[in-house]
Amino acid sequence: MYTIQTLNKISLKGLELFPRDSYEIATEISNPDAILVRSFDMLNMEFPKNLKAIARAGAGVNNIPVEKCTEKGIVVFNTPGANANAVKELVLASLFMSSRKVYKGISWAQSLKGKGDEVAGLVEKGKSQFAGPEIKGKKLGVIGLGAIGVMVANDAVSLGMEVIGYDPFISIDLPGSFPAPLKKQ
């Protein structure tokens, strides 16, 4: 049986992928075979001799001493793109909120509390100040066409936006999931 120590709260959905007859997973394991980590700072940790792998549940490994692990033969890997959809949704929500003045509208609506019978008239008179422009037909520049950038670009195209993408590490000639030709700048 392999033992896995978790240093942060890890999604049960992910942990359920490990069959319980082959893996023991807990936060308190003194000599684990592997460690699952999110943001816990491991840079000054001493590693048990039995440790074979460290998996970062997220992008990047800046909280793991990769060189030290390499010297000890400990494999380090991450899960880039695991939260890409959530980040993409936050980017799109930000586009909508800033374009359509959602935050200002919420604040204004809250200012109407206690105005009773006046509310209907105030809403009719004041609602137009929060209309904002539609994002359809607007240009969006996406810098970086990794997992998140491509998802943002694809969804923005689906929403009717013109997308201009830039990534110094990929070639425009490479096949990919980007639905429209990128414009060279």
3D architecture notes:
The chain is an alpha/beta fold and 185 residues long. The protein has 2 domains: 77 residues, NAD(P)-binding Rossmann-like Domain (Rossmann fold, 3-Layer(aba) Sandwich); 83 residues, Rossmann fold (3-Layer(aba) Sandwich), CATH 3.40.50.720. Helix content is 30%, strand content 17%. A 5-stranded parallel sheet has the order 2-1-3-4-5, covered by helices on one side. Strand 1, helix 1 and strand 2 form a beta-alpha-beta unit. Helix 3 crosses helix 6. The radius of gyration is 24 Å and the shape is elongated. The termini are far apart.
Task: Note the main attributes of this structure.
185 residues, Rossmann fold, 2 domains, 30% helix, disordered C terminus, oxidoreductase, D-isomer_DH_CS1, NAD, D-isomer_DH_NAD-bd, D-isomer_2_OHA_DH_cat_dom
